[in-house]
Amino acid sequence: MARSTGPILAAGTVTIVNRVVFNTEPVDWRVPIGVGIAAVSLALIERVSEPLAVGIAWIALITTLIAPVGAKKSPVESALDWWNQK
To answer: Which of 22, 38, 65, 74 could pair with 78 in a Cys bridge, judged by C-beta atoms 3.0 to 4.6 Å apart?
Structure first.
C-alpha cells in the first residue's frame, strides 16, 4: 500500500462520519467514489514523487478536519458539539 493511501482514506472517513453521524444526513456516495479516485491518483503520483503525494494526502486530511464545508461546521466542531450533547 502506498504511504499516501492512509491519510487520504482517513480524510474520506472523516467526511463521511461528519455527514452521517454528526449531522444525521444520508450517505453521499460521491465522497467514497472521489476518495477512491484520489487514493489511486496519489498512489500513481507517488511513483514519480513520493514526498509530493504524501504531502498532498496529509494536507487534504488536515484541511478536511478543520475546514467547514458550505454552511456546515468543520468535523472538529461537529465532533465537539456531538460529544458535549451526550
So the answer is: 22
